[in-house]
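User: structure tokens for this one?
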Amino acid sequence: MDDLYRAELELAIRAVRQAAHLCRAVRSGMDGGVMEKTDLSPVTVADFGSQALVCRLLQMELPADPVIAEEDSAELREPGNATTLDAVVSHVRHALGDATAEQVCGWIDHGNAKSFSGRFWTLDPIDGTKGYLRNGQYAVSLALIVNGEVMVAAMACPNLENFPEKGSQPGLIFAAVKGEGATVQAIDGDELAGAQPVRVSEAEDPSLARFCESVESGHSAHDDSARIAERLGIHLQPTRLDSQAKYAVVARGEAEIYLRLPTRKDYREKIWDHAGGLLIAEEAGATVTDVTGLPLDFRHGRELSGNRGVVVTNGKIHFQVIDALRAEGIA
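Assistant:
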């Protein structure tokens, strides 16, 4: 491996591993209670705790690097959410040994950068919060973006199972450095120990493709996906799972297509929902574009404002999928 980004890769893996352990600890004791943000998506204690742990490490090790993350501590600081703040602090203390409420809120707010810069990180502390609540798939996704290109990524998928023949427990970390390939290792491991390469499927017949999409119809237009599948001659039902775990499923060859199709014309994806998964999938051999075939552009702050939707394939059938999108008037 090129040593240029080795330190950042090891830091990113360490950060998402620590966050994943906190998420698991919170989930094991959940009573079903959640807060709600103004956009009505559920936010758990783990969401804030995860961001606090990851941003703490980034602030300690790379203090000059801005972080564009999903959460801030404003809601936690409100008097009515004191119980939630106490729970977040308790779980962070369990992970670290000690932390004050002010420190935890400060670490969360280290992720409050909003503008593009030459070098920054982007974090989704829990991607797939509804999957997390139902004990399905979710991810902790962290990526380093340099001059608009995703250069380092680490993504923990605490409930994603390894290949059956491996016989290991669920919980995987996918990681990549641009130009160096993608790897997977167990969450319950150490640093880079046991990392194995992952590679996309070699399938070339679109009609035999397996595809995956979001569980929530509000996240991706399921009817449009069905039309694309029909046009491509695909008869297999889609696999629906939450979070950037879908990128991982394509990256390791268990699906050939991931479609995240726009649900409305003015919607633009958030960068933290895609940066980590994109690099991991591309380094495994995938092709990732928007619905028109354009590369995803990370030079616009918090949103992919220059793109519409996301299409991920194993690379062999990408142009056929884009052509199908155009033929259906989606591109």
